[in-house]
Write a structure and sequence with these properties.
Strand content: under 5%
Helix content: 55-70%
Organism: Paenibacillus durus ATCC 35681
Pfam families: HTH_31
CATH topology: 434 Repressor (Amino-terminal Domain)
CATH superfamily: lambda repressor-like DNA-binding domains
Number of domains: 1
GO molecular function, one term: DNA binding
Number of helices: 5
Structural class: mainly alpha
Radius of gyration: 17 Å
Protein name: HTH cro/C1-type domain-containing protein
Distance between the termini: 56 Å
Length: about 90
């Protein structure tokens, strides 16, 4: 199961956790987690294990959660585009 910095950020978004809440779950400081999410620090084995345990992840569950993230992002993008449409009165 591949859990990298992008996966951590996406899981936090799906579960709607603050940086502080996610940091507690993963056993790291907020600043460390921020750097991990930005790709400035590598996710270590302890963080990866804590992520799997705290979210009770299996390969299938992780795949579903990431699909939820993708669907949410697509919906948000579509909403933004609809909101930016201009109509002209002729």
């Amino acid at each position: 199961m591949n859990i990298d910095h992008t996966t951590v950020r996406r899981l936090r978004a799906v579960y709607r956790l603050s940086l502080a809440e996610m940091a507690v779950l993963l056993g790291v400081s907020e600043s460390h987690l921020w750097r991990v999410e930005k790709g400035e620090r590598a996710i270590n084995d302890t963080m990866r294990r804590n992520c799997i345990e705290e979210f009770e992840l299996s390969a299938g569950k992780l795949e579903r959660l990431l699909a939820i993230y993708d669907e949410t992002q697509l919906a948000l993008t579509a909403t933004r585009h609809v909101g930016n449409r201009h109509t002209s009165c002729g």
